[in-house]
Amino acid sequence: MTRLIFTLILAICTGAMSLSAKTLVVYYSYTNNIETVVTELSSQIDCDAVEIEPAEKGLDYAANNYAIGSALISAIRSNPDNPASYPAIDPVDINLDEYDTVIIGAPLWWSQMAAPLQTYLFNNGSKMAGKNIGLIVSSHSSGISGVVADAKRLIPDGNFLNPSLWIRSSEVPNCKSLISKWLQDINYQEITTSIEAISSNEDFTYAINSGCLYASGTYNMISLYDKSGVKVGETNNTSLNISSLVPGVYILCVNTKNGNKSYKIKL
């Protein structure tokens, strides 16, 4: 339904066609279970993938009944708001603004999300506000509710896709069908079909700052629509108050002397 509404908005504004939105897969994998899952996922969808790597190399997380991993998780549990509680990771060169959907591939450590992945989300979760967030968890036997809670704590304004996918370690070698069914369950094809930036029209520019959308150029009217096709704002002035809108993807339609133009914007 969202795809149809977006297409109708475009037909009204520009007549342009819809394109596939971009998906990023962020994962950490110590035993290679999640890496196997991500490899299979990447064969089923068009996505970019980035692996999170601990800054300290050569650690044997499995030694002494995963004592190192247990200590890292305990440190985060004790003070989850302190950056010092999270283990250092290698720098990640990725621009989250380019992606509409982020899928997180997470191993379970002591009923929580693996510590290095928590570090990445602690540092970048706020940049995922309004994005579709999918979660895939691998564990031996324990349930995944703790990992889901970690993800929602670290990405408080994400649009979480339900259900999350739990793949037990024994299921990893044959995870193809599980992933395929999960993609259907979360309506992946529909939610990732959206509108890319449509116009390179140099007669109109806009900027977003402090709860306002500021426009410049020659135009008669600008209108803003949400994903449901509801008009949430309109003005013929140079600014539009958007402070009450929730983070997410919107369509900005601009009526100019040269016709109607349309842009996908993120708030």
Can you walk me through this structure?
The strands form 4 sheets. Strands 2, 3, 4, 5, 6, 7 and 8 form a 7-stranded mixed beta sheet that branches. The protein is 28% helix and 30% strand. The two termini are 22 Å apart. It is α/β, with parallel strands linked by helices and 267 residues long. It has 2 domains: 88 residues, Immunoglobulin-like (Sandwich), CATH 2.60.40; 174 residues, Flavodoxin domain (Rossmann fold, 3-Layer(aba) Sandwich).
What Rg is obtained from the alpha carbons, in whole angstroms? Answer: 21 Å
Percent in helix? 25-40%
Number of strand segments: 16
- Report mean pLDDT, rounded to a whole number: 86
Low-confidence runs (pLDDT<50, min 5 residues)? 1-8, 14-20, 194-201
Coarse shape? elongated
Helical stretch count?
Answer: 7
**Under the CATH scheme, which class of the largest domain?**
Alpha Beta
Strand content: 25-35%
